[in-house]
């Protein structure tokens, strides 16, 4: 059962999971794929609710979002998806069908053609309204040295649907 919720109702829960295991970022280009993000988050921009997701250029997800211009974010709760987070956060969709490998179920999105992950409780469907490739010269030197040269594209996705499919 789908229960629509305000986009900003569970920001604290999203931030907690973001920094303690990560969120599933699902895309559909040539095929359905999911990866894990530990950075980014929900904000408000251009009068719209926005989910910012940082995706390095090397990720299969990057080429998928470039094609589809949309993505979904599914938030796992508790420890039940720990193993799936580990796998999806370290293996590429170029080499694996991660849904099959991790026994994840893709359910159709409500407002986008990218699916959500049934095994998660909270979901955000997003359409890209802006993207920005990082400009290395604009980054603080210590962060540049610590985290790069594989730079991120920041995708700003308008949250077009936010809902629960389970207990939170
Ligand atoms: C906890 C965690 C957080 C991560 N955060 C990000 C992130 O914010 N951006 C990113 O590009 N990769 C991040 N990764 C790495 C990707 O999830 C990983 O490289 C994945 O295999 C990419 O899959 P793909 O090639 O199928 O897109 C993270 C991995 C983990 C385990």
Keywords for this structure?
alpha+beta, Flavin_Rdtase-like_dom, FMN binding, Flavoredoxin, eight-stranded antiparallel β-sheet, Pnp Oxidase, Chain A, 168 residues, binds flavin mononucleotide, 10 strands
CATH superfamily: Electron Transport, Fmn-binding Protein, Chain A
Please tell me the overall pLDDT.
97
Into which percent range does the helicity of residues fall?
10-25%
Shape: globular
Helices and strands, in order, run as EHEEEEHEHHEEEHE
Which residues sit in consecutive blocks of at least 5 with pLDDT less than 50?
A: none
Structural class by SSE content: alpha+beta
Strand content: 35-45%
Would you tell me which CATH topology applies? Pnp Oxidase, Chain A
The radius of gyration computed from the alpha-carbon positions, rounded to a whole number of angstroms, is 15 Å
- Sheet bearing the most strands, described? 8 strands, antiparallel
Protein name: Flavin reductase like domain-containing protein
Family: Belongs to the flavoredoxin family.
Organism: Caldanaerobius fijiensis DSM 17918
GO molecular function: FMN binding; oxidoreductase activity, acting on the CH-NH group of donors, NAD or NADP as acceptor
């Amino acid at each position: 059962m789908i229960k629509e919720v305000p986009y900003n109702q569970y920001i604290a829960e999203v931030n907690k999971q973001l920094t303690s295991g990560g969120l599933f970022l699902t895309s559909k280009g040539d095929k359905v794929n999911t990866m894990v993000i530990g950075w980014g988050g929900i904000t408000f921009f251009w009068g719209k609710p926005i989910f910012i997701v940082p995706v390095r250029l090397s990720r299969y997800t990057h080429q998928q979002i470039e094609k589809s211009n949309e993505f979904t974010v599914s938030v796992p709760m508790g420890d039940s998806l720990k193993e799936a987070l580990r796998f999806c956060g370290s293996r590429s969709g170029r080499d694996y069908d991660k849904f099959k490998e991790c026994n994840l179920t893709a359910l159709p999105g409500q407002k986008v053609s990218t699916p959500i992950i049934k095994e998660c409780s909270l979901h955000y469907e997003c359409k890209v309204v802006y993207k920005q490739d990082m400009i290395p010269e604009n980054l603080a030197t210590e962060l540049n040295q610590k985290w790069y040269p594989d730079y991120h594209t920041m995708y700003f996705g308008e949250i077009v649907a936010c809902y629960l499919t389970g207990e939170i």
